[in-house]
From TrEMBL:
GO terms for molecular function: DNA binding; DNA-binding transcription factor activity. Residues 13-81 form the HTH gntR-type domain. Pfam families: FCD, GntR. InterPro entries: GntR_C (IPR011711), TF_FadR/GntR_C (IPR008920), Tscrpt_reg_HTH_GntR (IPR000524), WH-like_DNA-bd_sf (IPR036388), WH_DNA-bd_sf (IPR036390). Keywords: DNA-binding, Pyruvate, Transcription, Transcription regulation. This is GntR family transcriptional regulator, transcriptional repressor for pyruvate dehydrogenase complex. The keyword Transferase does not apply. The keyword Flavoprotein does not apply. Gene3D superfamilies: GntR ligand-binding domain-like (1.20.120.530), Winged helix-like DNA-binding domain superfamily/Winged helix DNA-binding domain (1.10.10.10). PROSITE patterns: HTH_GNTR. CDD domains: WHTH_GntR.
Length: 237
């Protein structure tokens, strides 16, 4: 079975993201097992239907996730079927990281929709202060503080939902929620996306646009999962 894909009908960032996902899937499916080499970059770019520049960016992303190793003059070697984030998570927890992000996708996006009904001016101020603190932490590359601010942002929105069932379920996952907040920062060059995604969520909340807020949270959870090396289907795909 020879992997084939055509990704050249998308914007550059989307092309890179989809190339990362496609190669990741090939590795997980065993098409390129551990210790094997990926095809030469010219051939691989042709298989994917993308430029070599986009491919190089995708390979750098996969290397940061710990899936491949780029050896100058020797090729690109597959060194793991799971990202560092997944391996770290699996050692510490008894549910898959993919399952956990899917749960967050469902519960947190609906919590954000509900939060629009209850958000007060004081709540908006608190969330804006949190956003400023998160942005500062990311810019200064203080990943522990960024993860803490990220967690506080999500926790506050969950509580704003006033849905006691959702609040109770996610309170039981506090430790795992806190652990998951640090994982997307395994790729520091993509940390700015967290700022952009939080800004979109915050804007929708402050406008009390429930559907836009829900969608923004869905995109954020998907983006965070992908930065941790997790891909899953969603109804917004």
């Amino acid at each position: 079975m020879k992997p084939q894909a055509t990704l050249n009908n998308h914007r550059t960032s989307q092309v890179t993201e989809q190339a990362v996902e496609t190669i990741n899937n090939w590795i997980q499916q065993g098409l390129y097992p551990i210790n094997s080499t990926l095809p030469a970059q010219r051939e691989l770019a042709l298989k994917l239907g993308i430029s070599r520049a986009s491919l190089r960016e995708a390979l750098i992303r996969l290397s940061a996730l710990g899936l491949i190793q780029i050896r100058a003059g020797k090729g690109v070697y597959v060194i793991s079927q799971q990202s560092r984030s997944v391996e770290q998570w699996n050692v510490q927890n008894n549910i898959s990281l993919k399952d956990f992000y899917q749960m967050r996708y469902i519960l947190e996006s609906f919590s954000t929709l509900l939060a629009c009904e209850y958000l007060t001016d004081q709540d908006a101020i608190i969330l804006k202060n949190n956003f400023d603190n998160l942005s500062s932490a990311i810019i200064s590359r203080n990943w522990q503080e960024a993860a803490r601010q990220d967690y506080d942002f999500h926790k506050y929105i969950i509580e704003l939902s006033h849905n006691q069932s959702i609040i109770h379920v996610l309170q039981q996952q506090t430790k795992w929620l806190q652990q998951s907040q640090i994982l997307p920062f395994i790729q520091p060059n993509l940390a700015h996306k967290t700022i952009t995604e939080h800004q979109t969520i915050l804007t929708a909340l402050c406008n009390k646009d429930a559907k836009a807020a829900e969608y923004a949270m869905q995109k954020h959870i998907i983006g965070a999962a992908q930065r941790a090396g997790i891909y899953f289907f969603s109804h917004s795909d």
